[in-house]
Amino acid sequence: MLRLENIHLNYGRIQALRGISLEVLPGKVVSLLGPNGAGKSSTLKVISGLLSPNDGKLVLDGQAIEGRSCSFMVKSGIIHCPEGRRVFPEFTVMENLRIGAYQRPQGSDVEDDLNRIFGYFPRLKERSQQKASTLSGGEQQMLAIGRSLMGKPKLLLLDEPSLGIAPKLVAEIFEILRTINRSGTSMLLVEQNAHMAMKISDYSYVMENGKIGLEGSAAELKNNPKLRELYLGG
Ligand code: ATP
After folding, report:
1. E strands, the chain, where?
2. Contact 69, 49 (CB under 8 A)
3. Residue 15 alpha carbon to ligand 1 centre in Å
4. SS3 call for 201
5. Pocket of ligand 1 (CB under 6 A)
6. Whose CA is nearest to atom 27 of ligand 1?
7. Homologous superfamily of 2-230 in CATH?
8. Torsion-angle region of residue 156: left (phi > 0), alpha (psi -120 to 50) or beta?
9. Domain extents in the chain
């Protein structure tokens, strides 16, 4: 469904992405792993239209979309759940979720989706009238994922959903991500937590210095000594 071909991105004189090629097939969970500064978040920002690549192709369902606006990407079904959650702290859980549906036409099945999300995350239902700032870190991550789902993603981009969250909640969130994927949402997951990410991924790419250093299924990568080396930054 999504293909990146030789994507380059520069921040001024810094070459953050130096020829990234990867693919997310329909219905799959693909993870993008690698050490700090490898270029994982930058790759997601190119896909969601936050940044325009200097070179290369981005193809969604056969259509070239590189450099299009965030609004175009959202309408095409690409939704970015950013690093650090970025919930609106002064708004309630319910208000944050409804904001996620802002690009959808009036009268579409927003209420059904709210119920579906409360089914995935009962904690959010219990806290629906609570301000987002009063949620725990893990609950805020659930809210950020729920808000992204309100945009009806075909492809959900997740940036470090495990960051700063207690291990027990991380396991719970990853389990729910798998359930969401089984209901038909493809995912591209950026993670530092390679072990956890590979557990739910059909395929993984490992980035190093703006390039893909290694790729394969969890079974293929598990015993690869280069994974450890790359992942730890050499
Ligand atoms: P992390 O896991 O730490 O978030 P990452 O793999 O997501 O790392 P990126 O955030 O994509 O990496 O950063 C890739 C490179 O681009 C890094 O060297 C970073 O310093 C640089 N970079 C990122 N954003 C900017 C920016 N706005 N201006 C200049 N350089 C940037």
Report:
1. 2-11, 14-24, 29-33, 55-60, 63-64, 78-81, 155-159, 186-191, 203-208, 211-216
2. yes
3. 10
4. coil
5. 11, 14, 16, 34, 36-42, 192
6. 11
7. P-loop containing nucleotide triphosphate hydrolases (3.40.50.300)
8. beta
9. 2-230
Give the number of residues written for the chain.
234
Closest atom of ligand 1 relative to the 210 alpha carbon? 14
Ramachandran region, residue 201 (left: φ > 0; alpha: ψ -120 to 50; beta: rest): beta
* Among protein residues, the one whose CA lies closest to atom 10 of ligand 1: 41
In whole angstroms, give the CA distance from residue 162 to residue 217.
21
CA 1/CA 118 separation, integer angstroms = 28
For residue 2, which of 43, 51, 34 has the smallest C-alpha distance?
43
CA 222 – CA 83 distance, rounded (Å): 26
Q: Where do we find the tokens 């259509």? A: 63
Q: What confidence tens digit (pLDDT) does each residue in 186-216 have? A: 999 999 888 889 989 999 999 999 999 899 9
pLDDT tens digits, 16-38: 999 999 999 999 999 999 888 99
Q: How far is CA 82 from CA 126, 140, 158, 208, 225, in A?
A: 24, 12, 6, 21, 30
Q: Angle, nearest 10°, between helix axes 167-182 and 137-149? A: 10
